[in-house]
Prior knowledge:
heterotetramer, C: mainly alpha, D: alpha/beta, 5-stranded mixed β-sheet, 4 helices
Amino acid sequence: MSMNVEVLEDDKHHRYVLNMGPQHPSTHGVLRVLLELEGEYAMNLLPVLGYGHRCHEKIAEFKPAKSFMPNTARMDYLGALIYNHGFAQLLERACGIEVPERVEYIRVITSELNRIQSHLLWYGAYLLDLGAFTPIMYAFDDREHILDILEDVTGSRLTYCYFRVGGVSKDIDDKFVTSTRAFVKRLRGRFPMYEDLVNGNVILQNRLIDIGELTPQTCARYGVTGPLLRGTGVAYDIRRAEPYSIYSKFDFEIPTETKGDCMASFLVRFRELEQSLRIIEQALDSLPEGPIMAAKVPKKLKIPAGDYNSSVEAPRGELSYYLVSDGSDVPYRLKVRTPSYSNLSIVPEVCQGMLISDVVSAMGSLDLVIPEIDR
Amino acid sequence: MDEQKKSLLNVHSYTKECIERYDGASSQQTKTSDAPPLIRMKLSDAIFNLCRANSLWPLTFGLSCCAIEMMCCGMARFDMARYGAEVFRPSPRQSDLMIVAGTVNRKMAPALVTLYEQMPAPRYVIAMGNCAMAGGPFAVEANYDVVLGVDQLIPVDVYIPGCPPRPEALIEGILQLQEKITGKRFPLPQNKMPKGA
Amino acid sequence: MTEQYLVDYMYVLVLLVMGAICGLAPLLISTFFAPRELYNKTLDTYECGMDPFGTAWNIRFDISYYLYALIFLAFDVDILYLFPVATAFDKVSAVRGISELLIFVGILSLAIVYAWVKGVFSWTNRRKAC
Amino acid sequence: MDINNVKKQWQTLATTVEAVDYAVSGHDYSLSLERDKVRDFAAFMLEEGFYLVDLMAVHVTPAIEVVYQFAHVETRCRVLARAFVDDNVEMPTISDIYQGANWHERETRDFHGVVFIDHPYLHPLILPEEDVELKPLLKAEAKLKDVEAIRRQPPEPAPEPKPKAKPEAKPEPPKSQEQS
């Protein structure tokens, strides 16, 4: 069912092949999708990747493992802290470094703030794809609040490099705590407005309901994880399935839907904002005192030979690092399994035969970040 | 009829051209005509430059992380609209400023040059971020794919350092471009901003 | 008496000339004052930075577009007949004018009702590969 | 999905099945497979409800090692299955069982040159079209290591918490893997 390139070349079918190419407003970056059109219907789709490839994995084999942290933030710049968290956890597991309690809380709070920021940007950009111009202004207004809060602590707005192996680079003060609490209260107050302005909108519902339906079996065959999988009714969230860090201490639900279409993943992401707020509140309430760096972190991180995994719940799905080490401090091989890579691979099967405008809305619901796909 | 058909994924017609430009061999041979305007008057130039500088329509050309900071610039808080630059045109036909926001790699280079050439004549380029300026964090020995600097492919007017640069830096870049087009820097609207804004 | 006649035509002439000027002025300005810096690909069709595949001439259009054109044609002709009505509108009582107009347009809009019932406007959102 | 009969089935399919400590290595089971058993192993895993997390290659001396990573949605069980490519760097494809592997295999071919037999569309995915022979992630001769060097050294008899001293004599690796 994938596009057969040879058939197209001799043009017997007179089908019109169009490039939804690298520079396109709705591909959220430089993704190129070849659409084989029959009137308004995209009979075949063929995503072409590689326009945002930046050799991250080759760079990992030339630098000491500790100094790969900035690269993790540049793979998925919307969930940078969560990528840092996954990588820090990978090295701490490999070298057996115990992280103090306060650091775990700081990591969870900042990661959840980063998840909210990523979902807000998805919210604005997705509705911009569907033609609504106002919601992105509201979403970015909230997002700027988070950027200010995180900027005081991490020093940057987008590509954070805040976590270190064994701890974090700067302690959070009570200005951070008060502004975070104020932000939580403010965002929770704006949910009804978002609900009326957008979720209840009949145009949005017509554009999203019954578009791009997924079933748990399709997700298993393609390796789709994250809000798309939860949209089909499977409550699989790494924070609950393989509780890393201190997520087991907080009680939060995993929002799921049943139909698995675009509206389902839309609502799942929207409700995850609320769950992240709950986690932040609980974490802020029980924030312990203590050091922010593990006691003895060797300067040259000797990773014992062997292969190590670390998987965390990125905003788009399951992010897992796979490190093969030969005993030195430079990784022998580092593979990063990014969620959007598998999420995008369902497009040729799910969007086959759709109208072009539905293809745009289905791909928008995948919440793609292209440099994360091309690595 | 078969041989001149291009395979779908085949090499873009500009790949050879980009390789030459990248190695410095050819410099913009693809320019077919470079005639100045028919009527060249100082007054008309001043008027047109004033209009061009104050209504720079950028092309939505977000490649990676800098694209998010470019979006923040377009939003309410940093608001490029104050300088006439907030209309992001998806197609190069209606845009006269190309903000290269992100990393250009060898597969993207032909598309970049094609888009640059498909923009109407008074076209300006801002290289936003270290990647567009000189390869940024990917200008390392292990890099086999990233183009180190966009100015080897297309002429660049303003460079904005930063990884990603702050939205204020992008606005400063646009003000620098306006100064480059008209020769003088406009009285910033900020001077008249209400206290505490 | 003839001057009044001419003065009326003068207005029409002025409006025509103004319209022509507003139409042509931007074209002339851009041909004379715009810099002419062309590249190989400046005049090629824009397709997201990629080379377009084949020409757009030999593709076969979908039947649904043809039906839209038919419906547009029906109402285009319909407007044509409304111009004379507009000029003679004040010679007849308002009610009669409006009612006749509505009858005329009503009959013609039956074409749309027919097309609607036939399902021209309902696009199935999925079409299986043939 | 009860883990016992899954393990019994693994015994038949895989050459070695090794339970690994999750806290250190991040996965639960590490298997090594024969090349021709990969397809029925994948079919069995799909039946059991595992989803394919990742497929990647590691360049080591006897032959490039392709690593498949599976995880389960209901119960936490991460499985790593390894198989060595044959002499002319080929591997049977599993993209008809797990369609998600289609792209992983094309990418592995880009980076390591592992050709997957009867893969529907083995075009370069990430590298440009003309870079089929680039294979960037292959190790330079100097850095190439033997497969044993990247295996986990058996823990010292008394695994005291401080980082292990470098074992002087290279302990005989427990799993004897005669690779052609």
